[in-house]
């Protein structure tokens, strides 16, 4: 046969190869872990705040603050939580016998004040350690005083229930 001749030659290209596209799922795992942790922390914090907000201690404390004439002079009538979703800082621990809470209130004067309530159980009776309302604009403080406390450590006043 007449000859068909095929020529094969090898060419060597001496340059760096392009980087392979990253198919790693590691960024997705890290991002998911961060988002999951954030959701968990916000959810747990909100649940614990709701638990404190729903406690009889916070309800009793707000009741006493609402009807104390000195607090009404300080922040105005219609004393209520300062925010739509109030944040109750501190702890309410009936098992250990310790209550230490703080939250903000406001009244018709538009003044914001910080309520602090602390009580401790000694034996079977609770004792108030601190019960103050401090106006934030000038730090004027009203000491609500030491009241009889319920068996759960909340302020109790018979004169306001009538």
> What's the end-to-end separation, in Å?
123 Å
Relative helix content: 25-40%
> So how many helices?
3
Strand content: 25-35%
Radius of gyration: 32 Å
Q: What's the mean pLDDT score?
A: 85
How do the helices and strands follow one another from N- to C-terminus? HHHEEEEEE
The class by helix and strand makeup works out as alpha+beta
Beta strand count: 6
Low-confidence stretches: 158-162
Main sheet specs: 6 strands, antiparallel
General shape = elongated
Can you characterise this structure?
The C terminus is likely disordered. The chain has a domain of 112 residues. A hairpin with a 5-residue loop joins strand 3 and strand 4. It is 29% helix and 25% strand. The chain is built from 3 helices and 6 strands; from the N terminus they run H-H-H-E-E-E-E-E-E.
SSE topology sketch:
Blueprint: H1 26-53, H2 56-67, H3 69-75, E1 80-81, E2 89-93, E3 98-106, E4 112-122, E5 125-135, E6 141-143
Antiparallel strand pairs: 1-3, 2-3, 3-4, 4-5, 5-6
Keywords: Membrane, Transmembrane, Transmembrane helix
GO biological process, one term: mitochondrial respiratory chain complex IV assembly
Transmembrane segments: 28-50
How would you concisely characterize the structure shown here?
By secondary structure, the chain is of the alpha+beta class.
Question: Which characteristics define this entry?
Answer:
162 residues, alpha+beta, membrane, single chain, 3 helices, elongated, 29% helix, transmembrane helix, Coa1, 6-stranded antiparallel sheet
